[in-house]
From TrEMBL:
Annotated source species: Lujinxingia sediminis
Family: Belongs to the GPI family.
GO molecular function, one term: isomerase activity
PROSITE patterns cross-referenced by the UniProt entry: P_GLUCOSE_ISOMERASE_1, P_GLUCOSE_ISOMERASE_2, P_GLUCOSE_ISOMERASE_3
Enzyme class: isomerase
Stretches for region Disordered: 429-452
Name of the protein described by the UniProt record: Glucose-6-phosphate isomerase
Enzyme Commission number, as recorded: 5.3.1.9
């Protein structure tokens, strides 16, 4: 149905009305005006992050690396870690970080124990990231890791090995950093977690790893190099997704062709889902809006999900994500000969075959009347990844304006957090614990009807 060109713009093939641009042009301009106003007022800080000079963070990281640290454990979840992971994984397994990076995200004791087994705590930094300072998953794992660190190197040295990235003034983590003398960086007050990848939230651990953070920010800045034309291009992408959603295409599959791209899709899923899934519009009317993001992996999911996309409900927008270049490639040798039905593959590179797989799958979906698009990164290096991150933050924010919802809050996740705290004994949220479903093991928990 549509394809992005190299700058990330759509060219409509099918599925949207021929007069789409005429119908949506004014709405796009209104969305741009509204978003720019919110940015200019200082309400939304994500847009100005690429303009900040990272030299202080780069110089600081060089100094810390010179101390001989071999590993860092990034303790965070959601927007506090997904961006960092996405950027580092885009470099591929052949890239050797200056400081190895491990992620303590989900509350899985087996995973956390494995991290502790992999590192020498005497040579490891703990980088804890939570703006609120009250994130249950992050603070729980921090305390386990900090306790292990204190037992290994002593309290005074442990405090030198903790780096806190949190709110400038308030919250439990900010208070701890002051009390214990932890080195700290600020999450700008006007930048939310899922829009924070170009802030110290990710720049600090990326710089410690030796990543090209200057190149990342440079690529992000170039996202809007075209001025008004670039703004309209991004708004047009947002509008096409919203319009397709209005037509019943309520699921957005992002399918990455290249293992290095997979974590970028994880980052996008949170950005899109938490920003656009809202119960009410700005006037308070109940709208229950949103387009569900789905991750797929090419070519793997050609053998699992594509059958559904081809012949199942026609309710999905499918965006292919590819890279034009690979830092390493392999070629199928000319001998010994493959069986005759496969002989045409000899002499072909794996990247060439992967591209053909993507093109073939997209063409087949288009013939089946399924909406498809393609976003091609020039590479998975810093500049291209920075452009991808910035573009999708703007597209998501503009989609929120078009939907007339606030893309920068997340009220739907707060109740669950409070109930969890109540179940664990928090005095202010104990009453909410009575609203839970029966716990595993109760007879009633075996019945779906009992849970509804």
């Amino acid at each position: 149905m549509y394809i992005y060109d190299d700058a990330g713009l759509f060219d409509v093939e099918a599925g949207l009305s021929p007069d789409f641009d005429a119908l949506w042009s004014d709405r796009c301009q209104d969305a741009i005006t509204s978003l720019r106003r919110r940015i200019s007022s200082g309400e939304l800080g994500f847009a100005s992050l690429p303009e900040r000079d990272p030299i202080e963070i780069i110089t600081w990281a060089e100094g810390r690396r010179a101390e001989g640290w071999t590993d860092q454990i990034v303790i965070g979840i959601g927007g506090s870690s997904l961006g960092t992971r996405a950027v580092l994984e885009a470099m591929g397994p052949a890239w050797r970080a200056a400081v190895r990076t491990h992620f303590a995200e989900n509350l899985d004791p087996v995973t956390l124990h494995a991290i502790l087994e992999q590192v020498d705590l005497q040579k490891t930094l703990l980088v804890v990231v939570t703006k609120s300072g009250s994130t249950i998953e992050t603070m729980s794992q921090l305390w386990i890791l900090y306790d292990a660190l204190v037992k290994t190197v002593g309290r005074a040295q442990a405090d030198r090995q903790v780096i806190a990235i949190t709110d400038p003034q308030k919250g439990s983590l900010r208070a701890l950093a002051r009390e214990r003398g932890w080195e700290s960086f600020e999450v700008p007050a006007n930048v939310g977690g899922r829009f924070s990848v170009l802030s110290p939230v990710s720049l600090v651990p990326l710089a410690l790893a030796g990543y090209d953070v200057d190149g990342l920010l440079g690529g992000a800045r170039r996202c809007l190099d075209g001025g008004d034309e670039a703004w309209m291009g991004l708004a047009r992408i947002a509008a096409q997704h919203v319009a397709l959603g209005d037509q019943g295409y309520g699921q957005l599959v992002m399918m990455a062709y290249g293992d290095r791209l997979n974590a970028l899709i994880d980052w996008f899923r949170q950005l899109w889902a938490e920003s656009l899934g809202k119960a009410r519009d700005r006037r308070g009317a109940r709208v229950n809006t949103g387009i569900t993001p789905i991750k797929a992996i090419g070519a793997i999911d050609q053998h699992s999900q594509v059958q559904l996309y081809m012949e199942g409900p026609n309710d999905k927008q499918i965006v292919f994500v590819e890279t034009r270049s690979h830092s390493i490639d392999l070629t199928i040798p000319a001998s010994p000969p493959l069986p005759a039905p496969l002989s045409h593959l000899q002499g072909r590179s794996l990247s060439e075959i992967l591209q053909a797989e993507a093109q073939g799958t997209r063409a087949a979906l288009a013939r089946a009347g399924r909406p498809t698009a393609c976003w091609r990164l020039e590479s998975t290096g810093a500049a291209s990844v920075g452009g991808f991150l910035a573009a999708w933050m703007f597209i998501t924010a503009l989609a929120g304006e078009l939907l007339d919802i606030d893309a920068f809050d997340q009220p739907g996740v707060e109740l669950g957090k409070k109930i969890a705290h109540g179940l664990l004994g928090h005095p202010e949220h104990g009453a909410l614990a009575g609203e839970t479903v029966p716990p595993p093991g109760d007879d009633a928990s075996d019945s779906w009807t009992a849970r509804r």
